[in-house]
Amino acid sequence: MSADRHDLAGRPVIIGAGIAGLMTALELAPLPVVLMSAAPLGGEASSPLAQGGMAAALGSDDSTALHLADTCNAGDGLCDVPVARRIVEAAPKAIERLERLGVVFDRNPSGGLALGLEAAHSRRRIVHAGGDATGRELIRALVAAVRATPSITVFEDVRARRLLIEDGSIAGVIATSQTASAVFATDRVVLATGGIGSLYHDTTNPLGCFGQGLALAARAGAELADLEFVQFHPTALDTPARPMPLVSEAVRGEGAVLIDEIGQRFLADLPGAELASRDTVARAVFRHLAKGHRVFLDTRDCLVTRFAERFPAIAAFCHEAGIDPAFEPIPIRPAAHYHMGGVAVDDEGRSSVPGLWACGEVASTGLHGANRLASNSLTEAVVCAEWVARSVASASGTRIIEAGPAELLPPPAPGPVRDIVSATLGVVRNGDELRGAVARLAPLATGKTACADPAAVALMMAVSALRRKESRGAHFRSDFPTHTAPTRRARLTLDAALAADAELDPAPLARSA
Fold first, then answer.
1. What is the average per-residue pLDDT within 114-131?
2. Which of 28, 53, 327, 480 is deepest in the core (most CB within 10 A)?
3. For residues 184 and 128, what is the distance between their CA atoms, to the nearest angstrom?
4. pLDDT at res. 502
5. Got the DSSP string for 58-94?
């Protein structure tokens, strides 16, 4: 690592090699860039696990206006409407761009793009690949394109540990491999590190996705936004495997229903039933489980033997667990899946720290609001990568510091943070538990152990959840079960979160009626 990095001084550094990071690197070509991946390319990202696809208004009965309306309805009053409009309008061209890069999307018998239906979408607009292997196909094509692009220097198995700040701006990246630490001198950094799912015991995310990008940004002084909003996918395969295999929403889009151990379809009276918004379905499943029931996804009437053809990856997960969806229902439960919160960015992906951009799940653009509309995330990553790249390229690097020796930091690990987060920041929260979480997380966040960075992220999430004294989208407070009006997106810094611990009122919050 150290032998080559001196020749790379001044190049933009992209941290993360999922779809957002790979696309940003490709969009910056032929500008020389460094792409840093904590694992072999695509190996620790959530992107390859994405099953559903990419949302884009391509059908003859569809429009970007309808896509925008569905996005904002799911976002429950917190979407940044101009940003959301700009992203959904760019979605069809993003699909074309991916095809030019070698992505092979599924086609219908007439040769057009096959369009699937997912919850809270009013039209069939989900472009997919390999049935339920969209993320894997995107990663395959984009990794090949990156490998073939001479301007992209890839560092694999290298983890970014700190951002260096000089005069309030980005000055470099401290990175570690298994054997060494080094400083990459740069005044332009793009975070594309994914989400926070592995802060939870039950998650569909890779176990390395515990918010390291958010920790990097927070410790550099950046503002973060919407941290209280964690989307729990209602249908993760309920087996001991971690991460939990995802049973895509597209399965319900094909007609699958949720039943319990006695065969009761307990969502039949819910508006939208199995295709209601994810937060609504996740809470309904959570409550049914809390009553002592088991919950299953039943595909026997709608897909029967076609299940393995339409959803080959899910069928493989099921068969590994000894389940045949053609003849028996699939056991499921909610699991942490996607973080609507992230680094607060403008419409070019710039954070509050000069020289720092964010793209993909680690960023909070305002598209998702309080509850992400299914399959909008891959679309957001591809669309925003172009805007971020254009902004980075226009901010030509001029000020490069002479970096000293790198501090050797312990590899990060959630440790006890997982227990705290799983118990207090789940599908249903309450003020007493959140206050307890803040009190336990603050000393961990300021410590020197391996769990300090995960604890810092979790602390900011808990403070944000405590401050939002209402229920909205994916954030549900049992002590404040209704909306308030008006509402707004909230920003937070790590210093403010640490100060909040000292300022907490020990008296219980007043309960809403």
1. 91
2. 53
3. 37
4. 64
5. -STT--HHHHHHHHHHHHTT---HHHHHHHHHHHHHH
Per-residue pLDDT for 166 more than 70? Answer: yes
DSSP structure string for 458-508? HHHHHHHHHH--S-BTTB-BTTB-S--SS----EE-HHHHHHHHHH--SSP
Sign of CA dihedral 195, 35, 26, 132: negative
Helix (H, G, I), strand (E, B) or coil at 452: helix
Average pLDDT, the chain: 91
Chain centre distance of CA 232: 11
The backbone torsions φ and ψ at residue 140, rounded to the nearest 5 degrees and listed phi first, read -55, -50
For residues 425 and 499, give the distance between their C-alpha atoms in angstroms, rounded to a whole number: 20
Q: What is the pLDDT of residue 120?
A: 85
User: Does 278 qualify as catalytic in the annotation?
Assistant: yes
pLDDT in tens, 284-296: 999 999 999 999 9
Under DSSP, is residue 271 helix (H, G, I), strand (E, B) or coil? Answer: coil
Q: Count CA atoms closer than 13 A to 18's CA, side-chain side.
A: 30
Residue ranges of the alpha helices (H) in 208-260? 212-219, 249-253
What is the chain's Cα-based Rg? 22
Domains of the chain with bracketed CATH: 236-335 (3.90.700.10)
pLDDT score for 290? 95
Catalytic one of 85, 278, 310, 477 = 278
Alpha helices in 181-277 (DSSP H): 212-219, 249-253
Angle (deg, nearest 10), helices 376-394 and 134-147:
20
Give the three-class secondary structure for 350.
Answer: strand
Between the alpha carbon of residue 408 and those of residues 189, 375, 444, the distances in Å are 20, 39, 19
